[in-house]
Amino acid sequence: MIFSLSFTLLFSLFSTLLLLHSNAFPLHYHNHPLHHHHSRFATHNYRDALSKSILFFEGQRSGKLLSNQRISWRKDSALSDGSAMHVDLVGGYYDAGDNVKFGFPMAFTTTMLSWSVIEFGGLMKSELQNAREAIRWGTDYLLKATVHPNIIYVQVGDAKKDHACWERPEDMDTPRSVFKIDANNPGSEVAAETAAALAAASLVFRRSDPVYSKILVRRAIRVFQFADKYRGAYSNSLKHVVCPFYCDYSGYLDELLWGAAWLHKATKNPMYLNYIQVNGHILGAAQFDNTFGWDNKHVGARILLSKEFLIQKVQSLHDYKGHADNFICSLIPGASFSASQYTPGGLLFKMNDSNMQYVTSTSFLLLTYAKYLTMSHMVVNCGGTTVTPKRLRTIAKKQVDYLLGDNPVKMSYMVGYGPRYPRRIHHRGSSLPSIAVHPGKIQCSAGFSVMNSQSPNPNVLVGAVVGGPDLHDRFPDERSDYEQSEPATYINAPLVGSLAYLAHSFGQL
């Protein structure tokens, strides 16, 4: 788009004034007369939301915190993790509102944070370094978890015992049991996802830290070999531990395709392209899958591989463009293949439990695919209806805007963003008084009186995105309602990329 210089200047002045206004009067921002849906003007401060979406990860850190830790009510926790197995497993992330470290969603979170930076990091400006640090907190831990060949430590903490307590991570006294997969007890899905995370992150650090990047890619190669050679589901070998929490329902073939796609991207070794060509039709059998998340990677792999066909012109991956198009068509309301449900307020709705993870992952895929289509001058054809990259961006923006407050209850589902946001999130550390306020230990069950109370959480977990509203756009803001009120790392990870894109496209970065 070419505007005259004067318009550009006026527009940047207007954006600056709007930004200043939103910072100075955050409570009146949504009532501002300029808050309307005009395509040229941002209805949200995406830059602010981007900063907060990355800041959230600091609130989820386990282990020894750094001196520059910005979410200051969190302190060191779980400093002896791994000692039960004589291995150092200190660090990593708590996945949600509890104090268990689950390797499968942690690896997926790391992959999606990395993909966010690979696609949109160039637009992040001052936030790029914070995003890299969030990724590194994940990869440092994944390197520890894969230190022994043919073994991956996939969980620290007994989920059932942990869930029987409501206590701060700093006070934890439940068993920090360590669970692993190996050649005799395989776990191809968690192993291949870990390989994907390490490979994707190696691309993030390729220029800024080439030595670290090489360590990551070498480990990714080794871990993927293990995933592929010793095939089996960790939901079988560790069923009593990982189910029903992060039980794998889609099988491990999607992760093998996803892991191979990331290794192909990171190494350019023809072996991985060959692997995809030979095994792709078996691994990607569920062609009409249209749910992308920590469990099911089919759609993500298709979008990722379609880039190789669209931009690198790898003809053998031609089918992935078609598969990716099918996914897009399934999302378009009113298109002939539409298979998606939306709330009356317009939110994509996949399931009652933590629905927002599908909103953020789908929005990211829409923006990423729109980028690939634009670069290759292509469109999506949905049974005679042409869908342009612009249309994909519009749909993604609408989803992100809903999340940020453009919804029937005028609630931002990101904690700390906008005038109204969830005050009683299902999160132990956020809901209990901090160490600074209450230095004495809060015992396992003593915290339940707080969990069951109506009082707002004393510690604001800035940037946390919760599970979100129900199918009718309702949100009770109840702490006990984990399906709607619990934040999770894998809800935020893909959102980081989308917010970077939106902040840039509206001249906020």
UniProtKB/TrEMBL annotation:
EC number(s) stated in the UniProt entry for this protein: 3.2.1.4
Task: Please list the residue ranges annotated as the Glycoside hydrolase family domain.
Answer: 46-498
* Keyword entries, A-Z: Carbohydrate metabolism, Cellulose degradation, Glycosidase, Hydrolase, Polysaccharide degradation, Signal
Offer an example of a GO molecular function term for this protein: cellulase activity
Where, if anywhere, are coiled coils annotated? none
Family under the similarity heading: Belongs to the glycosyl hydrolase 9 (cellulase E) family.
**Stated name of the protein:** Endoglucanase
